[in-house]
Specification:
With about 625 residues, this protein is of the alpha+beta class. Helices cover about 45% and strands about 20% of the residues.
Length: about 625
Amino acid sequence: MSSNFNIEEELKKLPGRPGVYIMHDENDAIIYVGKAISLKNRVRQYFQSSRSKGAKIERMVTQICRFEYIVTDSELEALVLECNLIKEHRPKYNTMLKDDKTYPFIKVTMGEDYPRVLFSRTMKKDKSRYFGPYTSAGAVKDTIDLIRKLYQLRSCHRSLPKEIGNDRPCLNYHIKQCQAPCQGYISKEEYRVSVAGALDFLNGNYSPVLKMLEEKMLAASENMEFEDAAVFRDLLGSVKQVAQKQKITSGDGEDKDVLALAADGTDAVVQVFFIRGGRLIGRDHFYLKIGLYDKKATILNSFMKQFYAGTPYIPKELMLEIEVEDQALLEQWLTERKGQKVYIRVPKKGTKEKLVELARQNAVIVLNQDRERIKREEGRTIGAVKEIADLLGMERIHRVEAYDISNISGFESVGSMIVYEKGKPKRSDYRKFKIKYVQGPNDYASLEEVLTRRFSHGLEEQKELEEKGLDQELGSFSSFPDLIMMDGGKGQVNSALQVLNTLGVDIPVCGMVKDDYHRTRGLYYQNVELPIDEHSEGFKLITRIQDEAHRFAIEYHRSLRSKGQVHSILDDIEGIGPARRKALMRTFKSLEAIRSASLEQLANAPSMNTASAGKVFSFFHPGGEPQGNFAEKSE
């Protein structure tokens, strides 16, 4: 368990509010995402020994090294955020939630001259306005019915104004639930006023409607019109349920970052919500040391310059809680960095304003409850990266890539590429390579193949994206690292540099050197081995990166073996059939012993002769001359 995260202490800090909790294992991978009406009550249940949790959850709990959470304003928001995060991260233990269940939306067809209010299960990039998603389809339908009754909006499929006057008005006109635009009984301008009222209601201004329904319900009850009172009561309940408006999903499908700040004395936390494709898929928070009298606008301005100077991806829109200094200049700078227009906005009402407020609430919680842990975490990640940059004499390091090779006696070699950004693993950018062109156990050649394929592909992707005018972040290989770390010393580093020089790529490369006991001892950089304090956070980060690269390569290799794709290296020797393979393994016990055997020893093994022994010897010693004289052994 991470020494920087004390589960018992963190459980005491949990708020009694709705939200989503995220469980991480020792490798910081997300293994479970859940929602709760009360985070305090729900998360504590996992760690109570008296509760029966089932075998699956018991296994999961043993793997939890830390958890985090995002507070929401309602259980509904928690539910949809949970769904978004599961689809994004595919946690190991969320088997019951790995579906593509859809939630209903209310759709207002603003692209039409006479808009309609409709029920929809999908959200498209069109001119329509979408509200939701919601968990109750019945409540959505009731609300649509209510809106039609209140604002008398049409529900037909007629093409207006093209078909005005082509047919008689429908029943809805006669029961006063439509103003019959199909007959020209209401002008386009008057109809749009009713549509604006419906949009105002859907945007959250339902107090007048709730008040009106409640008054009608009470009036009907007093007049002993109980059936009418029941109708108003049911509609009132439906509106209240829909009033839990969803901020977690955006209808425009755009990429946004939502930034909010909480400050106390000389400590501050900036919370960043990442919205991609219209869905909130994650968040991060950043601890800052500030001056006692620094203004929020100044702090946010400084943070944005530092954060977006280092991040490889800039979204189309940034939403802030307050205007910052030099906002127009910041927009211009971000636009130049992205290559297309970037907007900085401060929403004042509606869904966007409530989403910014939600980010601010999370920032306050982090600052009040987690400031000491965040400081330690910053030391483990960003602070550790800065230590490494200082050691190597580099100005800054944002992205690090590390590589490793795994094989069994040279057969079915595989390569791993892992990525760390700001001192944290970025698992979405990890890549696996099955070695295609190198025969036998040659780690140097295998590393050269992996690096050649990775950066050749990256250069091609960069060129394609540049020709299309797209951001490099859209490619899987187009983002290049600030530093490459090889699992090894001088040989591995020189192999990497040779590949990069051939491709014309200028990236610093260092080697993670181990001692005789296979423990990390320092970095090999620019032909010098640099010692590093083994108690420092930089050293611990190097060790984590090295272990992670090795783990990822081993897991890939293991998965290939489990699928039956890895067989004995002896299978690749021409003329050596099953009987001779078995005889060699029975005689020499291991592939290493076969590799080390002389030609005479191979020929004397059961089922072998001079010709077959020569093939085996030549396979393991290409270009080598057999030593010793011996008579050919008969079959």
